[in-house]
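pinned: reference chain
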Amino acid sequence: ILTHDNTAAVMENFKAIGAPDVHDPSQPVFAMDHDIQKKSETNLSKYRDIKAFASTNGIDYYPPGTGIGHQVMVSMGYVLPGSLVVASDSHANMYGALGALGTPVVRTDAAGVWATGEFWWQIPRTVEVYLEGSLPKGATGKDVIITLCGLYTSGEVLNAAVEFHGPGVATLSMDDRMTVSNMTTEWGALVGWFGYDEITAHYLRGRAAMLEMLEIEGRLTGEMIAGWDANPPLPDDGAGYAAEITFDLGRVSPHVAGPDTVGVMRSVSDFAKERKPVHKAYLLSCVNSRLDDLAQAADVLRDKHVADGVELYMAAASESVQTEAEGKGIWADLVTAGAKPLPPG
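pinned: its structure tokens
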């Protein structure tokens, strides 16, 4: 269970419950990511209190600047195929990209999990999204989920578990899957889930090697991945669904959402005709910010410069993503083009 800056509020609820101690200190993970540029003494004191609580209770703590909490959860091996992973943050759906069941809880619920190690849900209905084809050049996972949000606006997946299946899944990178799963939250779903496949295994092997290098033992191992390879978390044959959506990735084009709601979408080609002025842009958000996204932006901006009168800010999903982008020259390309870096978060 992830909590971020709201850990302080969960701590208050935990004290109110009166539990003598945290039931299982290996369950909670604290990652500070929301208010990391706020240097007031009130905020800094809050961070100190959270860090002290983590230290006292033996809980893993990631300080400001480590990265977006969800990215920390997947990259540091806390999210495992077939497991149940929650967060006191609505975008816990993102964990479904790795074949986990990721779903949000509120702060009081999080305190209950700390105290008991358990929680209760009503099992939601499941909607299948069957993906065909592959994305054309220029379209990304973000365009997939924006398009789905804009096409199905009548509560078709509200409070449902969404499962992505079909031959199109194999054409989506792990970065794309994380984006799609993350933003199923805006679509109204409680879960955005992809089954385990070779792309999942490849990502996890990379994470396992990184954890081994950091001398973090047992959290994610080659033996565990071999077990999922042999017995992958997938739906039962003939599993039933409350509804099914067939979606052709080949027909997706770059889209923008809004204003004000993802229920409104427009193609970029259509929107561009209006020549709307841009004053500020942000690359990116908790839905994206990974290496693929930064690389795509650098491909656009390389040897160019942000227009006069426009402010372009950027932040990586995590410190490690930024380090990788720096090593590949991507970060320098963006800075040279006029992007203003912000800390990961």
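why pinned: The first helix runs from residue 7 to 17. The radius of gyration is 20 Å.
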